[in-house]
Amino acid sequence: MSYRSGEKFTILTVCTGNICRSPAAERLFRSAFGDEVSVTSAGTGALVGEPIHGPMADLLRDIDVDVEDFAAKILTEEIIGQADLVLPMTREHRGAVVELVPGAVKRTFTLREFARLVSKVDRAELEQATGPEPTPASRLAALVTLAGRHRTPVEPELDDVVDPFRRELSVYQESFDQILPAARTIARASLNL
């Protein structure tokens, strides 16, 4: 998919079970963007129909992010095709997305990778790319292109979000502590904060 001005921009977050990492990122983005941007999530091995897993839901609730009315769903070509930006939680997930839809490669970044690249984009360059009346959607569309220009190889641990599923609460916190600042960096750049 290619974003067109005036349309709603769509972000897709991806993990394995679609009950911990990707729904956390989805709900953080929904909280930041409201109705300005459409956000959804899916899993490569989704526990279809399940809610956000308890420990991750608790971490979201602690910062007043809504966790209700969530049901895990499986990643499909159609879901990827509808997304303007795909943010998997690991390089492995990114590979799965691109394997399903090779044409999505230029709009698919791990969550942490995209946040890192967004922080390298020059504000003047972003303003020039978004035109006279920028919106969160037009900023996100420009950031996909501009961030792609800054891609360089890094260590996998800088790109991947740790999987907390069925592990200690401290691992859920570690995972959340990787997701939250990345989501905030992307939201701030898109909302011009």
UniProtKB/TrEMBL annotation:
Signal peptide: none annotated. Keywords: Hydrolase, Protein phosphatase. Residues 9-189 form the Phosphotyrosine protein phosphatase I domain. It comes from the Bacteria. SMART domains: LMWPc (SM00226). InterPro entries: LMW_PTPase, Ptyr_pPase, Ptyr_pPase_sf, Tyr_phospatase_low_mol_wt. It holds the Pfam family LMWPc. SUPFAM superfamilies: Phosphotyrosine protein phosphatases I. Belongs to the low molecular weight phosphotyrosine protein phosphatase family. This is Low molecular weight phosphatase family protein. It comes from Georgenia alba.
